[in-house]
């Protein structure tokens, strides 16, 4: 078989950008200005570990500074390279514009397999990497605000924030220098689940529009839909768990790095996750068939496919065999530009990454605002809201007594209605609103323009127009 030439991840993003921009009427030169990555900083640093010096390579790429700070995660993986961080930084620009998070796009990465190092070693490495970035304002509450990505989480963010504080002892806003921190270090409720929760909200919004559901050949609600998910990490685990527990989806397949689990009757996401935490593998999980060829399960018959692990997994080699009529890109760049074309021709509907996984940056935005305002959301208004609700409940209770058996308050109403919204409820409400509005802005273009036949192009059109407007407002 002849090998198919697949574009690199960055080339793939550029190709998708070019498809969209060809439908726009931008002033000469602005298209190029938006597309290119402004700067990529590469650092090599040594850390003394296990009796010798180990040299690590890391990157922080800034794609667009039309708004500052710039924002984007830091990834720990062996595959990290300049092409990848630049592609991811570009996606961050478009993502932030689409969901109206007031940031430019950035991304970082460290070439490391975090599983090879002990926790105290990872702390030394992370602090040293952060030191290099902080020195150059590549971590800074006003200029560049990282967040977790593959291989990093709350723990790494707490180390980075602490490192920034040590180097900037008088910066009262130091906590806003990274997001995705633990609650006790300035984090926000609901950030860990945010990206997976956003995937759920995106699907809920998609299924509110019958015309869009019909475009996939599916019908009805999310209830009972058969879902295959790839990657049971932060994003995949939360998305699959919420879809199963709250929307009635049946998770028929889970693909991980060491193969896939399959059960047509449905897998218990929580149980699989627990098994993975305990055994460090999905192998041996009861009540499912395990196949060593994990990627083949991407091609399984299902209603919704959720790639939530890494880029390039649906490519020109396997695109024609993908059966799912609806793909939601929970990971960044899981479908290559070539595969995108094959799938579009087949009529597969793809909810694109820049929208589908924007829940993370949206709640990161809330966390950043919380850190800058130095107050938890809901602290001022919650009790006042409860007092006003109490007035209505008192009136209803009077009515209840007056009408006797003719009318009774529903069980649990009083308790539910009385409770003012805490931080978690407010975060979820803000995220839900963001995902609904962003989807509607995409679908308006998708259905409103004859020359736009897919959601990805629609998403690019919406976000590029916003970035272009910012540049024009700056006089460019
Ligand atoms: P993670 O490290 O928590 O999880 C990734 C999971 O994928 C792990 O369970 C890993 O074992 C699995 N995996 C790795 N290689 C695999 C393979 N070849 N086949 C199947 N599974 C494999 O990472 P994450 O934070 O969940 O990120 C996943 C994706 O979502 C990435 O593309 C990331 O850029 C994107 N994303 C993450 C966030 C966030 O908030 N964490 C936000 C937006 C986008």
UniProtKB/TrEMBL annotation:
GO function terms (MF aspect): glutamate dehydrogenase (NAD+) activity; nucleotide binding
Question: What SUPFAM superfamilies does the database record attribute to this sequence?
Answer: Aminoacid dehydrogenase-like, N-terminal domain, NAD(P)-binding Rossmann-fold domains
| Domain of life (superkingdom) | Bacteria
Keywords of this entry:
NAD, Nucleotide-binding, Oxidoreductase
Q: Where does substrate bind?
A: 71, 95, 364
Please give the organism.
Roseovarius gaetbuli
Question: What is this protein's name?
Answer: Glutamate dehydrogenase
Does Cell membrane count among this protein's keywords?
A: no
Q: Which InterPro entries match?
A: Aminoacid_DH-like_N_sf (IPR046346), Glu/Leu/Phe/Val/Trp_DH (IPR006095), Glu/Leu/Phe/Val/Trp_DH_C (IPR006096), Glu/Leu/Phe/Val/Trp_DH_dimer (IPR006097), Glu_DH (IPR014362), NAD(P)-bd_dom_sf (IPR036291), NAD_bind_Glu_DH (IPR033922)
Glutamate/phenylalanine/leucine/valine/L-tryptophan dehydrogenase C-terminal domain location: 188-475
